[in-house]
Amino acid sequence: MTEASWVDFLLISPLLVIFVASLLPLTVSVLKPHTRKRPIVFVFCALIGLFSSAGLLLSFFGVQKNLFHKALIFDGLSIGSSLIILWITLFTLFFASESLSTATDKFAEFVFLLLNSALGMMIITWSNDLIVTFIGIEMTSLCLYILMALSREETLSKEAAFKYFVLSSFASAFFLYGVSFIYGSLGSTYLSEMAPIIGDLLSKNRLLLFAIGLVVMGLCFKVAVFPFHSWAPDVYQGAPTPLTGFMATGLKAAIFIALLRWVGTGFLLGETSQSLSDLIQWGAVLTMLAGNIAALLQSNFKRMLAYSSISHSGFLLMGLLAAGMGEERSLGAYGLLYYIFAYSLMTVGLFGVINLFEKRAGSEVNLQNLKGLASRYPWLALCVTIFLLSLAGLPPTVGFFAKLLVFYATVKQGLFWMAICAVVSTLIGVYYYLRPVIFMYKNEELEEDSIPKEGSFLETLESKIIFENESLSLQSEALSSRKLTCFLVFFSAFLSFTIGLALEPFYQVMVVALKNWL
Amino acid sequence: MFLSFLIFLPLIFAFILGGVPKKKLLFPLALSFSLLEFLCSLFLFLKFDSSTAALQFVERIHWIPSIGISYFLGLDGLSFWLVLLTTFLIPFAILSSRRSIQGNQKGFFISLFILESTVLGTFLSMDVVLFYIFFEMSLIPMYFIIGLWGGPRRVFASIKFFIYTMSGSILMLLALITLIFMTRSLPGGEISASLLDFYKLKLPFVAGEFFTTSSLLFFAFSLAFVIKIPLFPFHTWLPEAHVEAPTAGSVVLAGVLLKVGAYGFLRFVLPLFPQAVEHWSWLFLLLSTLGILYGALLAMAQSDMKKLVAYSSVSHMGYVMLGVFSYNMAGFSGSLFQMLSHGISTGALFLLVGMIYERTHMRDISAYGGLASKAPLFSIFFILVSLSSIALPLTNGFVGEFLILLGTFTSPGQRPYAFVAVLGVILGASYMLWMIHRVFFGTLGAKLRSKVEKESLSLDINLREKITLIPFAVLIFWMGIFPNHFLSWMRPSLKHLIQNRYNYQLSVLDSSSSSKKGEEKKENHFVVSKIHSKGDFKEDARHHKRSFP
Question: For residue A419, which residues of chain B lie inside 8 Å, CB to CB?
Answer without folding.
Answer: 174
